[in-house]
Design brief:
The protein has about 240 residues and is an all-alpha fold. It has twelve helices and no strands.
Length: about 240
């Protein structure tokens, strides 16, 4: 499938088009399996047109990852910009970002996107994306944790290290979610769903204890997440 040819595009629009096409190809075929020719044909652009914006396929990849990460980080920045809320409320808003996004979008589609991103062929791509988010999110979360320490509600000696740990813990859920998604419609579905709920509970229990909060203070923000996940229809 090719995108419609578009003439006389502004440079910024052409760059955005190339990123759109690359994102689709990288996550459907895998980065290594996607060729430069695939990108050129899908975007209906010449080699010269491509190299005007990107020097290589690798630079195109970094452009895709940066744009995805920027979208996540911009939501985090909005949370921390609220100077009127308490640190606990800011922490809740921060940890609920993922659940809020999933509920506000087509969740079955989000499940399939997640499944595709976590395919073996995309693991290196996904790890680079997560690393970019962690690097950008650490100072944002550190600011929330410092506010909590100043308010006397968090017990943390090193807010930056605590922020890095919490962001690392957030990826723990992905393994259980991948297994649950793969188990949909099989005899292992019930157990996989229970394990996913256990992973969610343990993730936030760990965050509570890292910050010196009472157990049960933080949560995913979407109690029906496991039920919604297991009820989505697997795509053949």
């Amino acid at each position: 499938m090719k995108t419609p040819a578009r003439k006389n595009m502004r440079p910024e629009d052409r760059r955005a088009q190339l990123l759109d096409c690359a994102q689709i190809l990288f996550f459907s075929k895998g980065f290594e399996e996607t060729t430069m020719q695939d990108v050129l044909e899908f975007a209906s652009v010449s080699k010269g047109g491509f190299y005007h914006h990107f020097k290589s396929k690798e630079e195109l990849l970094f452009g895709v990852l940066d744009r995805l990460a920027d979208g996540v980080l911009s939501q985090m920045a909005v949370v921390v910009s609220d100077e009127t809320s308490s640190a606990i409320d800011l922490l809740h808003n921060f940890t609920h970002l993922r659940a809020d996004y999933l509920r506000e979008h087509d969740y079955p589609e989000q499940v399939e996107i997640f499944r595709t991103m976590n395919h073996d062929r995309n693991l290196a791509l996904l790890e680079q994306f997560k690393r970019r988010v962690r690097v950008g999110a650490t100072p944002i979360l550190s600011k929330i944790l410092q506010k909590g320490c100043d308010e006397g509600v968090f017990s943390v000696e090193d807010v930056e290290t605590a922020a890095e740990l919490i962001l690392h813990i957030s990826n723990f859920l992905d393994f259980a979610l991948t297994r649950a998604i793969d188990a949909r419609g099989t005899k292992d579905a019930m157990l996989a769903g229970e394990n996913l709920q256990s992973a969610i509970d343990l993730q936030f229990l760990t965050i509570d204890r890292v910050l010196g909060l009472p157990d049960g203070t933080t949560n995913f923000g979407w109690p029906e997440a496991v039920k919604a996940t297991m009820e989505t229809m697997p795509v053949s």
